[in-house]
Amino acid sequence: MFRGKRLRRTRIGVAAASVGLMVVVAGCGSPHSTNTANSTSTGHSTGTNTTGQSSNSKPTPGGTLVYALAPQSNLNWFIPVVNSAADSVANFQLIFQLYKPLLWVNANYSINWQSSIASKITYNKQGTVYHLYLNPKWHWSNGQPVTSQDVLFTWHVIQAASSANAPAPWPYVGEGTGDIPNGIKSVVANGPYELTFTLKKPANQQWFILNGLIQLVPMPAKAWDIHKNIMNEIKYLGTHATNPMFDTVVDGPFKMAKAQSDQYWQLVPNTSYDGHKSILNKLVFQYEGSNSAEFAALKTGSVNVGYLDLSEWASRQSLTSQGDVITPEYMFGYFETQLNMFKGSPVRSILDKLYVRQALQMGIDRKSINTDIFHGFAPPIDGPIPGTPKTNFLSPSLAAKNPYPYNPTAGKKLLEAHGWHLVNGVMTKGSQQMKFTLAFPSGTIAETDQVELMKQDWGLEGIDITLKPLPATTLESITYTPSDASQWDLSTGLAWFYNGPGYWPTGGQLFASNAPSGFGYTNSTEDALIAATHQPYPTQQASMQAFYRYEDFTAKHLPVLWQNTQATLAVHAPNVHDSVKYADASVGFPQMQYWWISQPSS
């Protein structure tokens, strides 16, 4: 899975790119055929003007489109191979404007070959040999073709950046996902537009393609591969990856024009792009200090594609009255409360007990979180696959029954049955106490309301919570760094989205022992069930049954605490067109080259 640190909160915003972790306060889009401005999947009416979706009028060139990032989300990495700290949805939303992915996945989780560098992939029945063919139409902005040598360059960078002796700022975040890189026996370029990948052992073909091969976003070898030593090369790339002006040779629809950290990142159309060319003058990713600042920018028009935090729901009329369109948009993934079970965690010996995790889960009133805080736009999640948006990956048994409904009385009794008892209102057992610090992203009122409700309900079980707000990037950095295990207990406000290595959403990078995004969780049964989803099967039905067995166990064994699928309430100014049609919300990566702005008549 591509546990992208796309931080999660309410607008696809601070999350990740390697399965996507994210603060959903920064995202945009809905599947192509759903969630229109007037009729949404939740039944809410959110607007009457449809120009934010599409238009039958002729597109008019020009204009500046300003896209608001999630509060306090700073873009800090600009090349397609990333480390853990940079693996966010927000970063990749911009990166994919500069660089074309090898495989572009649509909102319905099918491969869009017309927008992919690859033209097709073939493989043998055993799942050990894969032939990758590139579409020769694609070129870099300097006129040179995108070839197998560019894919090989990315492959060698990933190999080196995944090694134990990789220099800072590595290692590569996707190491271990989709058999990359250690499961690959060889990679050979058969010509300028064909490569052969041979695996060391059989793999489920769809899993390897959508979790392994998808990581190989071509990078410009002739421009960047300037060292004879690969370790020097990755040190060079790691040093320049944080510099947005380093990216002068690109193959995506836009080029970087100028940027100022914590302020803005301004793109202009790549006139050499071989796909649908943008007709905008400028595309700006804009930093936002808070939801209230972003809301004010929407009202003044200085932001024309943004978001409405749920805490601002009562004020929506001030936007719709000026013609703005509001659309609820759901990414495919899950929101979680993370449990620190890393070595060195001060609470590991408590949280590694299943009954403790069960009591914590039963103390989260997800229905009230949905109705009272998120106005019905945050349906509860019962496992690693959400019910919204709907996909074929949801286990029938989980669709029928929630394993851990809200019941703090039962949670308290469960703790007492294992020897815990109240001492001064706090569950205590020997020298241990149920006292935890819960870290969460600052800057979002709805997130603050949610953690305050969680604190209150866990108090009914004798679990004492101290709330700790942190900037989203700081929160992400601490929780995903094992060496920082002593700095936190529980963390919420982040999400994992299946929008990178993870389009085939098994839990290898998430919940397997020693997974980079597993927070120290380990279980041999979980490992075996995950491994079973990675094997080839004679039929799609047999493959899905193996997946459901993994999903059911994971849902009940609680490697994390399941929260709510929070919608991004995306706001589109009335002169913005096709921003809903080409938002691709479920995967989180909009096709911004199709967005355009109608110009006032002279």
Characterise this structure.
The structure is a single chain. By secondary structure, this protein is α+β, with helices and mostly antiparallel strands. 24% of the residues lie in helices and 19% in strands. It is built from 16 helices and 23 strands. The strands form seven sheets. Strands 18-17-19-13-20 form a five-stranded mixed beta sheet. It has a four-stranded mixed beta sheet with strand order 3-10-9-8. Strands 4-5-7-6 form a four-stranded antiparallel beta sheet, covered by helices on one side. α2 crosses α5, α9 runs antiparallel to α12 (408-417) and α15 packs antiparallel against α16 (540-557). The longest helix has 18 residues, at 540-557. 56% of the residues are buried.
Instruction: Indicate the percent of residues in helices.
Output: 10-25%
Query: How many alpha or pi helices?
Result: 16
The whole-angstrom Rg is: 23 Å
How far the N terminus sits from the C terminus, by CA atoms, comes to: 50 Å
Strand tally, please? Answer: 23
What share of residues are in beta strands?
Answer: 15-25%
Mean pLDDT: 89
Strand arrangement within the widest β-sheet reads 18-17-19-13-20
Q: Briefly note the structural class of the backbone.
A: alpha+beta
The oligomeric status of these chains comes to single chain
- Shape descriptor reads globular
Biggest pleated sheet = 5 strands, mixed
Low-pLDDT regions: 1-52
Topology of this structure?
Elements: E1 4-6, E2 15-16, E3 64-71, H1 89-98, E4 118-123, E5 129-134, H2 148-161, E6 184-191, E7 194-199, H3 205-211, H4 221-224, H5 230-240, E8 254-260, E9 264-269, E10 282-288, H6 291-300, E11 305-307, H7 317-320, E12 325-329, E13 333-339, H8 348-351, H9 354-362, H10 366-373, H11 396-400, H12 408-417, E14 421-423, E15 426-429, E16 432-433, E17 435-441, H13 445-459, E18 464-470, H14 472-479, E19 490-497, H15 524-533, H16 540-557, E20 561-562, E21 568-572, E22 576-577, E23 596-597
Parallel strand pairs: 3-10, 17-18, 17-19
Antiparallel strand pairs: 1-2, 4-5, 5-7, 6-7, 8-9, 9-10, 11-21, 12-21, 13-19, 13-20, 14-15, 15-16, 22-23
Helix pairs in contact: 2-5, 9-12, 15-16
